Amino acid sequence: SVYRLWGNHITFGEMTMFLQLSGTLSGAFGALVGMVPAAISLATSAGRVMEVTQLPAEQYTHTQQVEQILAGKQCSVQLQVEDMDFSYLPGNCVFRQVQLQAEPGQIVALVGPSGGGKTTMLRILLGIVTVEQGSVTVTGAQPPITIPVSPSTRRLFSYVPQDNTLFSGTVAENLRIMKPDATDQELQAVLKLACADGFVDNLPDGIHTLLGERGNGLSEGQI
Q1: Taking the model in full, what pTM does it have?
Q2: CA–CA dist 177, 214 (Å, integer)
Q3: Cα angle 197-216-52, degrees, rounded to a multiple of 5
Q4: Torsion 183-184-189-193 (CA) sign
Q5: 3-class SS at 124?
Q6: 146 CB contacts (<8 Å, ≥6 apart)?
Q7: Dihedral of the CA atoms 58, 63, 67, 69 (nearest 10)?
Q8: Those residues with Cβ within 8 angstroms of residue 74's Cβ, 6 or more apart along the chain or in another chain
Q9: What is the rounded radius of gyration, in angstroms, for the C-alpha atoms of the chain?
Q10: pLDDT tens digit string along 80-133?
Q11: Contact call for residues 187 and 176 (beta carbons, < 8 A)
């Protein structure tokens, strides 16, 4: 536009109008281009959600036997892993011929470098993934009942993950994820058992205090 103004092809007013319109056009074009990464991210997230919704339903085939174990006077189980093979992908072996036994009251530690399969072992014990060969069983009750690990036996395990997960909502709503019909008195009893009643009682609205996503508003220790 400066060149054409210098060559007397346009006036100063026409140059000013051109610069204003070009600025508007470039801004709109930049906004349009900026939508492309967001659209790609949206499509990727939607694809992942669809994959979750299309997962096959878990089969709870040993519910009755688990109930018998839980109904025993001493609810203790033995864990037995024999000749277990597991891999996520063909040729990418995680476990081969693994042997593991854990007796009631025994403390067992899985030790190894990152990527050694410790988390995978927990997924197997919780019935999230299935082994290729061998067996993973739990034995309990009297007379003894032995059943393979599956989604049904997940009730026999208590799992404390290394990451903390809280959702946007009140303290009470987060606690009721595990028991939707829990009373306020039951929630207070749980907080006392967890030694968390002190700081929760000091929150502005107690158990009805609204928390941000991932526990925003609390310290890491409180989460």
Answers
A1: 0.58
A2: 14
A3: 105
A4: positive
A5: helix
A6: 137, 138, 139
A7: -90
A8: none
A9: 29
A10: 999 999 998 877 788 999 999 999 889 999 888 877 888 899 999 999 888 989
A11: yes
